[in-house]
Amino acid sequence: MHFRKVFSLSLACLVTLFTIRAAAQQPAASSQPSAPPRDERLWKKALDIQRKAIVVDTHNDILSMMTDDSYDIGVSSVGKYHTDIARMKQGGLTAEFFSVYIDRTYVRDGGSARRALDMIDYVYSAAERYPNDLMMAYSTADIRRAKKQNKIAALMGIEGGHAIEDSLMALRDFYRLGIRYMTLTHNNTNNWADSCCDEAKHNGLSDFGKEVVREMNRIGMLVDVSHVSDKTMSDVLDLSTAPVIASHSSARALADRTRNIPDDLLRRFAKNGGVVMVNFYPGFIDKNVVAASKERDDRLKAQVDELRATYKDDSKRLGEELNKLLAANPLPATPLSALIDHFDHIAKIAGIDHVGIGSDFDGVPSLPVGMEDISKLPNITYELLKRGYSETDIKKILGDNFMRAFAQAERVAQTSSKRLSGDGSVKRISQKK
Known about the structure:
alpha/beta, TIM Barrel, 6-stranded parallel beta sheet, globular
């Protein structure tokens, strides 16, 4: 998995730099809590709801493996990756947003837009290779059509606003190619928006960053605020005339990470009409894992420094040795209840109409017990039933909330202008408003 996505300055960040596959094969927890016996009546009801619902996952990183390793998503990857077509169907998935993740190294070395273009082509290739299973989708209507045809709608979101290389023209071109949301930053502050996990340079959004948000509203591309700073998020919520999403974020009140959203901003999603899609990564949802990870980083720092010095010229070997070190020092297991707590909390603070699923499958090194891969999505429905959620509210979480927000963003775009480029802004980052 792409470890670099979930850490910025921790031990696992070092693994990120060198190891991007096979994390699912590693022991991620020191012990596995035993699950209580399943209520078969409730499980049958959960499967029935899952079958009828539109189930949308707004963030999956398997595209990085498809691009870098030529992984064929139609081939089973059980025990290696979290995602393949068979398990997507087993999980009852209707629509998947493939993450066009652009690492911050492309900012340093160049080629952000080219990387995005390459990744986009891999999604089209998969849809063309498996037309009976996948279909390219660009709208809420397409997602509903895929549901009727018993296919999985393939959509795309750019992760890391630096991918547009500070060009509104490139932003529009990415929309033409099928990009339907953009995460304004990754863990790096870019030239126009501050990140959650980097030095703040713009006090949120710069003037050009505000222009990016306006243009995204105008053309119908959802603004995604996962990874951004609190001030950037606040600026977006002040400015956006369309619903805003957090494609893979959780609740800070339950796990104190800057990648998560505090309650005051969760409440603003309700006023905006947006949706917070819950991230499944234990390091973002389980306070015990957050604490244990920090303790492990501190405890192993000397060993990590020694490994870095020893294998400074052999990145592959360094990654292997770091993996061994982590495997020998596992973090505690995260029960599925910790994940469901975040759905619960966001539903209570923002409202039941403002929470959804943003798994981060294949972008994280470990997952909660009972959510080991994409086939396990029905377990969310089952656990929500156990907590007393109605079928209507569960369907909202599974996908209806996102569909409502996406449809509203489409309506905003339809009333904003008729010409994608002809009515578009040509402002550049060096220009004043």
